[in-house]
Amino acid sequence: MTALRFVLPVCLVFVLFGAGTIKLYMTDGTYQLAREYKLEGDRIRYYSIERGEWEEMPAELVDLKKTENEVKSREESAREEKAALAAETKAEREAAHELERVPKDPGVYVVEGDAVKPVKIAESKIVNNNGRSVLKILTPLPIVTGKQWVELDGAHSANVVTNSRQEFYFRLSNEERFGLVRMSQHKGNRVVEKLTIIPVTKDVMEEADLVDTFRLQLGELIYKIWPEKDLTPGEYALVEYTEGKVNMQVWDFAYRPAK
Fold first, then answer.
1. Which of 122, 246, 240, 136 is nearest to 195 (CA)?
2. Residue 37, Cβ neighbours under 10 Å: how many?
3. Among 16, 26, 60, 84, which one is most buried in terms of CB atoms within 10 A?
4. Long-range Cβ contact pairs of 127-133 (< 8 A, separation 24 or more)
5. Is the pTM value of this prediction over 0.85?
6. pLDDT band at residue 130 using 50, 70 and 90 as cut-offs
7. What is the pLDDT of residues 6-33, one digit of tens each?
């Protein structure tokens, strides 16, 4: 078919870039597959995918509203997909940049502006219900049945943060559980968690006041962690542990709002 030339003052051209084909809907319920189409006066010109050439038909045979709605819907989907891809790419770049900031040694690091500072691991102790013995956490750990506490010496941490949504980097030493706990007080010391050792079976029931947190994995065994809600002033600790084995490692800090 020889292509016709039209010179008209008004010409609407619809091309669905990068989305394959357009369904040019007919008023009888059928459709033509087109690469693009043009409304020129009372005629529709379209490039037929099936026949690989330009064709035309009376505009009254085409359901333009339905066709245009689908074109707009697909264009909107394409824009959303492009925006989502751009956001994902940006997030990946930012995560890669953050990963470079985390030191290579396992442990906890506090984020202070552009600086990343290590938090010293605390010396945890097991205190039994009668106060008869204080045991450093070992592996395996000697356990006495009854009530016990995992404690840190002193009522307050020397590590103080003033940001209620303080961010930390956590590089784990192994594939272990980890989290943020709010500590309570016991005879002038800070309690990380309470333990109940069941007689005979020696099963361990652990009670810790876990704080809800957001976690972003930056790499293998490397996470960014921060509280979901503003912290209330008090004593806290980031912990790494194996559930039921009382092998907790503790990095303590206090939250005190800036004056």
1. 246
2. 27
3. 16
4. 127/151, 127/186, 127/189, 131/187
5. no
6. low
7. 333 334 444 443 446 889 999 999 999 9
